[in-house]
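ok new one. same drill as before - structure tokens go in, u give me an amino acid for every spot. 248 of them this time. try not to just spam alanines like last time pls lmao
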């Protein structure tokens, strides 16, 4: 399978304008593990999840197929960053207590990845996949964002995006799923920060490549009218869809 790299050329922006996952979710995931020796954060991107896991596990192996993404990571003594694909990790059999994949499993060759998961997890080890949907601010702003998402750049979303739109319900999972809590990401951003985030969308970049112009100034004008003061910070949240299971 060819690695579909939609993120390397905007790695710095991705690191700057992506919200952070809630600390409570990582605490809960750690509580689901009977051992806390080794965790693998697969498709780590800028290392956000790896950093959060580092407080709970002795060793974190954080891999990404994009070298450019790994240049944006934060170094920490017990985190080991490796450029590797999700389907072929340079790790030992039955060596992991937890495997996490944040907002990336929809890009994988999942049958191959799940075989790799089963090879690497120790008995009763935990696999956790999650994604997050469109953010929400106010009904008026949300309607403008949804129109931009569906109609302006809608044709330029890679087909894998449908798994996020379906809240990972149809993505498949190799183990019996456990009940999970409802988590969400929350930030307070002004309009320039929201525009920075929209610039990281893969559909934005594919639109520019295909059409030859930036679609963001048009939506920014509409959002400015709805925002009132563009420098005003507004509460923003994203729903998280989490799938968790134990290897038998």
């Amino acid at each position: 399978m060819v690695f579909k790299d939609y993120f390397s050329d905007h790695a710095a922006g991705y690191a700057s304008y992506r919200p952070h996952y809630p600390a409570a979710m990582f605490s809960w995931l750690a509580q689901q593990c009977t051992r806390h020796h080794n965790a693998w954060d697969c498709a780590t991107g800028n290392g956000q999840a790896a950093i959060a896991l580092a407080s709970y596990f002795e060793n974190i192996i954080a891999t990404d197929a994009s070298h450019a993404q790994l240049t944006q990571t934060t170094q920490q003594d017990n985190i080991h960053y490796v450029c590797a694909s999700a389907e072929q990790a340079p790790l030992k059999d039955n060596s992991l207590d937890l495997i996490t994949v944040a907002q990336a499993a929809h890009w994988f060759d999942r049958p191959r990845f799940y075989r790799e998961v089963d090879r690497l997890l120790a008995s009763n080890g935990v696999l956790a996949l999650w994604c997050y949907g469109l953010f929400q601010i106010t009904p008026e702003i949300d309607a403008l964002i949804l129109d931009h998402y569906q109609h302006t750049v809608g044709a330029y979303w890679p087909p894998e995006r449908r798994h996020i739109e379906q809240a990972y319900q149809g993505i498949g999972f190799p183990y019996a799923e456990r009940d999970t809590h409802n988590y969400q990401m929350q930030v307070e951003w002004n309009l320039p920060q929201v525009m920075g985030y929209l610039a990281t969308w893969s559909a934005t970049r594919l639109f520019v490549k295909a059409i030859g112009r930036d679609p963001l100034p048009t939506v920014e004008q509409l959002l400015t009218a709805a925002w009132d003061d563009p420098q005003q910070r507004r509460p923003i949240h994203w729903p998280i869809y989490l799938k968790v299971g134990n290897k038998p």
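The domain at 8-135+157-186+237-246 is CATH 3.40.50.150 (Rossmann fold). and btw The first strand starts at residue 38 and ends at 42.
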